[in-house]
Amino acid sequence: MAAVNNASLFSTLNKAQTQAVSSNAPTVAILAGPGSGKTHTLTSRVVWLVDHVGYQPCDVLVATFTVKAAREMKERIGKALGGGREKKIVLGTFHSIARRYLATYGQRIGLDPKFGIADDSDSRGIITRICKRLDTKIDPPAAKAWISKKKARGTVDDAPTKSKAFMTCFMEYQQHLERANLLDYDDLLVRCVELLRRYPSCVSNIQSVLIDEYQDTNGVQYELMKLFAQERRRITIVGDPDQSIYGWRSAEIRNLFRFLRDFNGTEEISLEENYRSSSSILDVSLRVIQQQRSLRKEPTGRGGLDRLQIKRAKAMSGGMIKEDDVAILLRSAILSRHVESALGKSGIPYKMIGGFKFYERTEIKVVLDYLRIIHQPDNNDALARIINVPKRGIGDATVKSLLEEAERGSTSLWKLLVKHCRGDRNAKTTIRKQTEQKISGELLKLINNLRIKWADAAKGKGFDLVELIEQLLKDLGFEKHLEDTYGDEYESRWSNVQEFVALAAEFMKDPSLTEEDALPDIASVEQVRETDVLAKFLANVSLASDKQTDSENQDKPLVTVSTIHAAKGLEWPMVFIPAVYKGSIPHIRSDDDAEERRLLYVAMTRAQALLYLSCPLYGSHSSNDALQLSPFVEDLSATQFLKRGPSFERPTMQEVGRILRRELPPEDAIYKGMAYMTPIEDNLFPDPTEAKETGRSSTGASSEARQLKRHKTHHISNTGQSNPEVVEGWNAPYSTTMQKSSSFTLPGFTTAGAHHVANPQEPRPKPGPAAGPSRRPVSNRPPAQRTLRGFVITDHDQSKTTSEALGPILQPRRVLGQSQSVGNRRNPIYPTQQGTPLLKKEASGGIESALTDHKLGSAKITSRPTKMTPSEQPQAVPAVKQYACFSSSPTKPEKDEEEEATVVLAEEQTRPASCFHSTTVGAPQALGFRGVKRPAGLSHEGIAPMDRLKKPFKPLTIKRPWRKGAVQPVYDNS
DNA sequence: CTGAGATCTCTTTTT
DNA sequence: GAGATCTCAG
């Protein structure tokens, strides 16, 4: 069997991947950059382990970090493995796997098998209450973060005084959870570690452990991984430190070291050679960008909105690009509102991933809380939340005092209420007669009834989860309640509830879709079989806080709107990142700029062919300040903002088609299809001059902003469902355009012709249609690939290497021509540009060019004499969008540069869309027009991924007992 | 004390 | 643009 399977298995793998998949080393570390086929490699390895090595699927454990990744992994393994065998694999997020072990074996460590999961809002609520009660000055969110860190990491280093208050809070919190029989997310991991330490037999069957996105592991997860694998110590990890974006969740890149240290003889494999496809993407994208650049000279239009771009892209590609090829990635989920409403108005179908939490909706939470109480009446928090929903005449004050009373008496709220209604309570808190009746009759009775029914159901009385929920809704008069509370808005709320019921039904139909299957039986180890569907359902809700909507919408192509975090591991032909402004990315509340930078990097590398970054000019709410472009792209944008949005001209689309390996329909077919709409050019936005005419010259940012706001409301009420393309884009007078544009609060627009494009790996040798996807030799190294090692070096030798490597970049100002973007080491990137490579040392020292090329912003820093002083910088910013295009096309002729300077100058007053172009380097201009002082260097703190790329490559310093390719450890695969 | 209406405040990312 | 919090009438 092996032979046949292997053939097909390896046919889709390149050499490095093959090596990774079929490695016989007990521990394998696969280090790879974006787009190098990590997931594919990992899934293939699972297949190999099962089909070739011969492990039972149930003896293989695969852990991921996000639900989506788990789902995808399962699907892909399922496809590759066949026969539904993937269901036997212990696969899921760390949390979900931990939960399964705890549910099955947790009793051994004194866990009540009916434990519930305290989700984020539960924890927050509990901690907030504790903080209030303790009357400490500590900030609940801070306390929460501290506690979580402490659990996830084991230690927290901070001032002892701080720790003390936090510690008290921590202990109270823990007690509270225990009383309510809850585990929070961190507890799932911590307790599972405890379990597996004390009872290794629970995982004695596990032959091999595989970890996806290893760079996201935190301390506990690392322990857990080791414990999962304790029987055989066979582990495969896959990761890319540059995509480490979960530092806030205590992910520690350091775990890579630990891994290499703890597992001597780890085989390390870089998936460099597989960068082929991406590399050709780079190459081709280059040309795409060029096409766009050539358009810049036409003075027709500028700016644009992604929703329009989407339509245009679709039209101009004759349907080659469809909605589902497009993703809009956001730093924060809240931003999706704007995007969603804009998409909605344009009639573009979309789906939202991440951030948007169905189960967090109030109406759903109420139902869930009832279910949780039915499952476990002692859940005080849940009970307290719904005790007065629907209104029963109990107010906050009473609830609070009841809760305190319960706490004092070491009992639960539920028990207290039951007692009270039976009349054996020495009332400390008075409850009114009327209220008492309601509680007794409507709440306690209702819940008790359902509990009894549910208990009977367990004995096979044919009462399932859906019926339970429906009964609950009926008994509660929930629809009426919603109507009373939400008025005309109630319909959507009620439909959410109905959707929830449908989800429950789906869950019942096929629990394995949403939730894992039972853990494998282990001879001689006794298990508690999870029989309670309700428990599983609730756990699933807590651990997979998003619904799966895919099933119904699969026929229609949908644009994806997603948080960047949730987009990790995915890719799309066309990607928009519409909020690249300071405060969003890096986020205002983030204290780790390097991580924010990686985040942007992750976002950008999701793009296969087309990448657009944009920056709105104003915040959406009451901010008087114009938004500033994210410092991460400052240097890029300074040179690469385009006046206009992208043009999806035929040559461009042809290249896109090549990248995607799709066929672009013939020209006539395309134009036939777009008879009545879609401007070919993106000229939504007025010229600077026109902007002035519309009365938009500087009157101060704040009044502008206000004006904007008015426009916004105005617009919303006035624009019907008419074809937005026509209305706004084309025939409408500018005033309308402005209104329309301002209605979209993420308007500014920075196109980036693919991140890759921003930094060409090579000079385009002969820009010709020959640039096919597979043409490039595999020697091109994916930049990020090395970085894992780069990182490793970093820890040892950081200061030195870094400062040397980054020295030139850190220099804030340089004179034109003196420095140059970091191009390909072997070949100066832009033939026409003068200047020397930034990193001479490396240039001679031989890091691969690609490593440095990959750098996003800083690789491109070049500068020229400042043309304007800071005092010339504009104060006011009219409402026009900015478009930026990251490109890497060759230097423009001098003339062009002059032109550009002029354009930028014009923007000084009127702030039209500004246009940057990487090749028309001009950071100072950007400086000028934005009125921002540029930081001394991009990489002021931490080592951003792209910066790390600049470090010379060194092999890992960790000693290993054998060399690659030499003696391999023998599998004891008896 | 409750409940309705008004006002303030925020807003990361995921399990 | 929703949630938490505050204010005041009953």
TrEMBL record:
<feature type="region of interest" description="Disordered">
    <location>
        <begin position="741"/>
        <end position="838"/>
    </location>
</feature>
<keyword id="KW-0067">ATP-binding</keyword>
<dbReference type="Pfam" id="PF00580">
    <property type="entry name" value="UvrD-helicase"/>
</dbReference>
<feature type="binding site">
    <location>
        <begin position="32"/>
        <end position="39"/>
    </location>
    <ligand>
        <name>ATP</name>
    </ligand>
</feature>
<keyword id="KW-0347">Helicase</keyword>
<dbReference type="InterPro" id="IPR014017">
    <property type="entry name" value="DNA_helicase_UvrD-like_C"/>
</dbReference>
<keyword id="KW-0378">Hydrolase</keyword>
<comment type="similarity">
    <text>Belongs to the helicase family. UvrD subfamily.</text>
</comment>
<feature type="domain" description="UvrD-like helicase C-terminal">
    <location>
        <begin position="235"/>
        <end position="569"/>
    </location>
</feature>
<dbReference type="Pfam" id="PF13361">
    <property type="entry name" value="UvrD_C"/>
</dbReference>
<keyword id="KW-0413">Isomerase</keyword>
<feature type="domain" description="UvrD-like helicase ATP-binding">
    <location>
        <begin position="11"/>
        <end position="278"/>
    </location>
</feature>
<feature type="compositionally biased region" description="Polar residues">
    <location>
        <begin position="696"/>
        <end position="705"/>
    </location>
</feature>
<keyword id="KW-0547">Nucleotide-binding</keyword>
<dbReference type="InterPro" id="IPR027417">
    <property type="entry name" value="P-loop_NTPase"/>
</dbReference>
<feature type="region of interest" description="Disordered">
    <location>
        <begin position="684"/>
        <end position="729"/>
    </location>
</feature>
<dbReference type="InterPro" id="IPR014016">
    <property type="entry name" value="UvrD-like_ATP-bd"/>
</dbReference>
<feature type="compositionally biased region" description="Polar residues">
    <location>
        <begin position="817"/>
        <end position="836"/>
    </location>
</feature>
<dbReference type="GO" id="GO:0004386">
    <property type="term" value="F:helicase activity"/>
</dbReference>
<dbReference type="InterPro" id="IPR013986">
    <property type="entry name" value="DExx_box_DNA_helicase_dom_sf"/>
</dbReference>
<keyword id="KW-0238">DNA-binding</keyword>
<dbReference type="InterPro" id="IPR000212">
    <property type="entry name" value="DNA_helicase_UvrD/REP"/>
</dbReference>
<protein>
    <recommendedName>
        <fullName>DNA 3'-5' helicase</fullName>
        <ecNumber>5.6.2.4</ecNumber>
    </recommendedName>
</protein>
